[in-house]
């Protein structure tokens, strides 16, 4: 395994890039290469990848070359290669400039097997025109000995190119690149007059018109010779601070979702920065986004803001999603790495877990600031003078000194290895930990095959009692299952809670759950349920991270949980204290 990172050395005012390698499944790590250039130089934006035949690749971006070296251009990319899995490294090959580049290698066994792709952005400047950012790539067809390009893709001239995430190679040889793009700005039209309460709420439509970005995917074909216009995954509202680039993964397993692509991205449409997940079987048509970071929508302040997602698929077709999460900090600053997984091809996710036992913390005392690393900067002469500056190594997306990106590896044994930064020692350092997900990927039909016939459309679910205990923030809920079908139903009925959400907490059901994390209710005794008859089930729901409702009478007009968008629940007046979507199965004959 390999991890590449920027490295701040405040004692020498130096920012460099390095690659750390582990040859024992992540138990121990050592730095294999540190691209310091020279005594004065700095490097940025590291990228690394493994290729077939024990090849390893590393790229970095020199911010300023050694003045003693006659580069053809001061804007270049360093490309390194290793033929022994990262033990030893070649001298750098000077390649075309690609900003914020990421590397990916083709392992498909197809016509472009072994191709190395470096994908990022470049800026085109034309006299009299605003600078234009665009997706750009360079390609090596000879295992990293030489790099050709760049090949560019320009979105329409009045659009804006945002982040470009790390690419993946599809089993059919296409390269899929996640990108943020922004259409021309259009002022939000004034909201229409309120409609009757039973119609779709007017603030939903009003909120949707305010979205200004698209999480999208660009397809590269012909071994890097052609870049196509992006296919949009979803509309988004940018996060502030920035939530990081979109990330993509593709299923290379032999499971039921072979070839399915997944994109994780951030969205602030519903009142806080959330981690969203979408999937596609062709890279063009994408499923409706699913929020995967499970906190409530707060009623009293912005946040908690999640950010910097990453995503990967293991050998069993399990999708792992990781991100930096601020739910534990009421000030919405400190964060901890969290992880969740999908076992059904992105249709749902398991409740998330904290990966790191320590959070990245910030100074609390009034006027106190976290220490910064001083970096020397010497711009070129201007007007007969030379300017000297000392700048911080901070990153705007994560307040101070945390970095710009995260990453996650998948080992051959199927375990996920997210990588993050925290400052538990007083210094921001890299950490990783293995995460094992029990189970393999199965379709929803396979998950439900042993449950019997789906009779959800034939049964009415009616709440006959709900008692809320404010002290424990929990509900005692009793529901009646009424047979509306013309024929009797075989008992007991099995109820699977597919979704459960609340605006005042994170709901957790007491009792058994299945492999997808769905609460499972077994309702009724052996026998049959005649038409127009009912059986009753009672359960207890606990709302974790509970919030008060005091003074929140109009909050429904502002904070609609993304999970409720487009559902009948979204149209109800008042706070969504508890809502559930269930599937009901008749006993298997």
What does this structure look like?
This protein has about 600 residues and is mainly beta. About 0% of the residues lie in helices and about 40% in strands. It contains 2 helices and 37 strands. The strands form 10 sheets. Strands 12, 13, 14, 15, 16 and 17 form a 6-stranded antiparallel sheet that branches. The two termini are about 50 Å apart. Residues about 195-210, about 395 and about 550-555 have low confidence and may be disordered.
How far is the N terminus from the C terminus? 50 Å
| Count of β-strands | 37
Number of helices: 2
Give the overall shape: elongated
Biggest β-sheet: count, sense, barrel?
A: 6 strands, antiparallel
- The helix/strand class is mainly beta
| Rg from Cα | 26 Å
What assembly state would you assign to the polypeptide chains in this entry?
A: single chain
Short description:
With 589 residues, the chain is mainly β. Helices cover 2% and strands 42% of the residues. It has two helices and 37 strands.
Topology:
Blueprint: E1 2-9, E2 14-21, E3 30-35, E4 42-51, E5 55-64, E6 77-82, E7 93-95, E8 99-105, E9 116-124, E10 132-140, E11 148-153, E12 160-164, E13 168-169, E14 175-182, H1 202-208, E15 213-221, E16 226-227, E17 231-236, E18 247-250, E19 261-267, E20 274-280, E21 290-291, E22 307-313, E23 319-325, E24 336-342, E25 353-354, E26 374-377, E27 389-392, E28 407-410, E29 416-422, E30 429-432, H2 444-448, E31 459-469, E32 474-483, E33 489-501, E34 506-509, E35 520-529, E36 534-544, E37 579-585
